[in-house]
Design goal:
The protein is mostly helical. The protein is 59% helix and 5% strand. It has two domains: 201 residues, no CATH class; 50 residues, Herpes Virus-1 (2-Layer Sandwich). Helix 4 crosses helix 5. About 4% of the residues have low confidence.
Length: 280
């Protein structure tokens, strides 16, 4: 069995039946949103033409990047739900821009059609819109549509999507973490901008970066792990590394490959910890 598939299934096994039902509802809503967007894209010749033009001039690397971003968005959706039992990710920068979502959905539809009928696109590009519409609206529906008959099928399609895309972008669960160990990346700019400023209350605290006291009544930066630092100290720090100086709490970065790898590791640890506790 594919290792990626096994990791997701092991992580999902940690959920209770009501939690699993809520997750399936969340995934169905995500699929339905993408289905509606693709329907709007195919229903508008102008929007279709613009998106096709955008795809045409993207290099293979940038097309792969679109799929990688789409994988990150879906992985974030899953991991965030499993941590908080809600469907809204805490890091908005993982959401794909609308123009990029249109491009990746159209790209995936091309791939789906080619797999279904390898000769379907052996025609003039001006005919592609008609061919895609016939396939999407009349023959079958994309995996992403979410128009399926059971909760089990919704979950299976989502797990298959994650595992297929992870293989495509070359995620190696067992070895990537060792290869990237020690590599430092900056915290995502959107995350740093959103960090809260808080007042020091109670006794004076020390900033571990400069070793100076943070006096009561002054504004300091609070990381999600609740550790406090002088703004002038933490900002240069986060431009170099995305970890807390005190506890190594990891903030999101703008490095897509590292973010994907870390999300897979979270799922791996969830399933492993649950398996170990079940044997005790």
């Amino acid at each position: 069995m594919d290792n990626h598939y096994s990791v997701v299934i092991a992580a999902l096994s940690t959920l209770t039946p009501p939690q699993l039902s809520d997750l399936i509802a969340s995934i169905s809503a995500l699929f339905y949103c993408h289905h509606r967007r693709l329907t709007a894209l195919l229903s508008s010749p102008t929007l279709f033409s613009l998106t096709l033009h955008h795809l045409k001039y993207l290099s293979l690397h940038h097309k792969s990047l679109l799929i990688t971003q789409y994988l990150l968005s879906n992985l974030t959706h899953l991991v965030h739900f499993m941590h908080t039992k809600t469907s809204s990710p805490s890091y908005s920068a993982t959401n794909i821009k609308l123009c990029d979502l249109d491009a990746v959905l159209l790209l995936l539809l091309f791939c789906e059609l080619r797999q279904h009928d390898p000769n379907a696109l052996e025609t003039s590009p001006v005919e592609w819109h008609r061919v895609l519409c016939n396939y999407y609206f009349h023959d079958t529906m994309l995996v992403l549509s979410g128009l399926v008959v059971s909760e089990v099928e919704v979950l299976n399609k989502f797990v298959e999507l994650l595992t297929k895309f992870s293989r495509f972008v070359g995620v190696d669960i067992e070895h990537d973490s060792e290869r990237k160990e020690g590599r430092e990346v900056a915290a995502a700019a959107a995350v740093v901008v959103a960090l809260p400023s808080v007042d020091i209350r109670g006794g004076e605290k020390e900033c571990v970066i400069c070793n100076d006291e943070m006096k009561r009544g002054t504004d300091v930066c609070e990381l999600p792990c609740a550790h406090l630092f002088h703004w002038m100290c933490i900002l240069p720090w986060l431009r170099k590394t995305n970890t807390c100086p005190c506890c190594r709490y990891r903030l999101p970065s703008d490095d897509i490959s590292i973010e994907i790898q870390q999300l897979w590791e979270v799922l791996l640890h969830m399933g492993t910890d649950h398996s170990d506790s079940s044997r005790d």
